[in-house]
């Protein structure tokens, strides 16, 4: 068996066997299969797809490439959530302390940014001192003591995904339903949670552009999870428009903290509504309550301040400095103005995401260094009325901001 045989088989639209997929995953993980061969197979999968069986075999092989975390020493039903990625999606930063404040253990492993979408780990690492690399025992201890831990993938937790994740980001193979499903579910299963809520984004700023694609991804991931003995719920949410007001690593942490702290003027109702829905689903799975009970409980811990207190406790427990959760000055700040008068009809999340990457908030290559303070603040949101010359957004970066990036934000706004 060799990679050329796998290329030829996939090129003809034939299914790869479990043994062939295992061979590929093992070989790439150990380094015997080089990047250029792995990239070729990933592109063939991106173009020709995979069957349900192939996708399941890929997920299983990726899980088996490293350790599977045993969370049985954590008392209670362990819940996790995952978003397929979006522009301004800081939902994890909000919902995890909400659920922990309700007494449900949240054991979450997250990734770095992929394409135009920000990664939870990048956002948390923008906080001074915050530690995203935890040993298995540290992770378990934090969940037992604080009901919450969010960490990056350890070196031996699904190492196959860690390598493939970075390669997909720079080879144009991100938007593949089988690859996305296998990547997400391998991490979720290996992370050991009992239940998983999947937030599947749909729209211009998501990998899934249409409702049909989003539903197919949701169904694929749910089937994998159930086949592997997990309780899984998938929720499809809009990503035609950026979520909330802030896009960028530190900026999104600041907005999430403001929401939890009740400073709703610093965020937007679209983010608040989405966080309540996802947290409610997590609580329904874990506590076995109905939607009305779950929603009331979620709103209760937001209102009484316990969710904000839990967020602060979580930050300190992983070495972070709460007082550092403030927007920092950048070397360059540019106001973007409206070029016409009317009502904001939509804000193209894809263009906003691309602009955030050019500002330094996202990665162009595996080796790209992030500017944690870079990003975008949306002043005008969907439904707002603006006049010609009004400031609709601010751009922040520690590198010069070019006219192309400014124009891209103006083009993202459809003003009717």
UniProtKB/TrEMBL annotation:
It catalyses: uridine + phosphate = alpha-D-ribose 1-phosphate + uracil; thymidine + phosphate = 2-deoxy-alpha-D-ribose 1-phosphate + thymine; 2'-deoxyuridine + phosphate = 2-deoxy-alpha-D-ribose 1-phosphate + uracil. SMART domains: PYNP_C. Its cofactor is K(+). Its EC number is 2.4.2.2. Keywords: Glycosyltransferase, Transferase. InterPro entries: Glycosyl_Trfase_fam3, Glycosyl_Trfase_fam3_N_dom, Glycosyl_Trfase_fam3_N_dom_sf, Nuc_phospho_transferase, PYNP-like_C_sf, PYNP_C, Pyrmidine_PPas_bac/euk, Thymidine/pyrmidine_PPase. Belongs to the thymidine/pyrimidine-nucleoside phosphorylase family. Catalyzes phosphorolysis of the pyrimidine nucleosides uridine, thymidine and 2'-deoxyuridine with the formation of the corresponding pyrimidine base and ribose-1-phosphate. This is Pyrimidine-nucleoside phosphorylase. It comes from Lysinibacillus boronitolerans JCM 21713 = 10a = NBRC 103108. The lineage of its organism: Bacteria, Bacillati, Bacillota, Bacilli, Bacillales.
């Amino acid at each position: 068996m060799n990679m050329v045989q796998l290329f030829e088989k996939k090129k003809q639209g034939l299914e790869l066997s479990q043994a062939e997929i295992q061979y590929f995953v093992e070989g790439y993980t150990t380094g015997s299969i080089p990047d250029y061969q792995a990239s070729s197979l990933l592109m063939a999968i991106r173009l020709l797809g995979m069957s349900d069986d192939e996708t399941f075999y890929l997920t299983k092989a990726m899980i088996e490439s490293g350790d599977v975390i045993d969370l049985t020493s954590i008392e209670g039903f362990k819940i996790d959530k995952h978003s397929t990625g979006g522009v301004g999606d800081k939902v994890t930063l909000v919902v995890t302390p909400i659920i922990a404040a309700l007494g449900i253990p949240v054991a979450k492993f997250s990734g770095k940014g992929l394409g135009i979408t920000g990664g939870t780990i990048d956002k948390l690492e923008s906080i001074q001192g915050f530690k995203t690399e935890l040993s298995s025992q540290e992770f378990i201890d934090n969940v037992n003591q604080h009901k919450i831990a969010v960490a990056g993938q350890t070196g031996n937790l699904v190492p196959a995904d860690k390598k493939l994740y970075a390669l997909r980001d720079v080879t144009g193979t991100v938007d593949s339903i089988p690859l996305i499903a296998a990547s997400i579910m391998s991490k979720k299963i290996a992370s050991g949670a009992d239940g998983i809520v999947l937030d599947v984004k749909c729209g211009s700023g998501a990998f899934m552009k249409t409702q049909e694609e989003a539903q197919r991804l949701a169904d694929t991931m749910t089937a994998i999870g159930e086949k592997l003995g997990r309780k899984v719920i998938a929720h499809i949410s809009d990503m035609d428009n950026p979520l909330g007001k802030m896009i960028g690593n530190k900026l999104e942490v600041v907005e999430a903290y403001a929401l939890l702290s009740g400073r709703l003027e610093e965020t937007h109702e679209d983010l608040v509504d989405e966080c309540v829905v996802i947290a409610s689903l997590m609580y329904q799975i874990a506590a076995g309550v109905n939607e009305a009970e779950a929603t009331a409980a979620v709103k209760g811990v937001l209102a009484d301040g316990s969710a904000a207190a839990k967020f602060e406790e979580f930050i300190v427990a992983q070495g972070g400095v709460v007082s550092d959760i403030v927007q920092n000055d950048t070397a360059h700040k540019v106001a973007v103005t409206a070029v016409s008068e009317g009502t904001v009809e939509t804000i193209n999340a894809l263009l906003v995401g691309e602009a955030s990457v050019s500002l330094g908030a996202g990665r162009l290559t595996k080796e790209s260094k992030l500017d944690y303070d870079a990003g975008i603040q949306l002043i005008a949101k969907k439904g707002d009325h603006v006049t010609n010359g009004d400031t609709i957004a601010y751009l922040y970066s520690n590198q010069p901001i070019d006219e192309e990036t400014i124009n891209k934000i103006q083009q993202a706004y459809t003003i009717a």
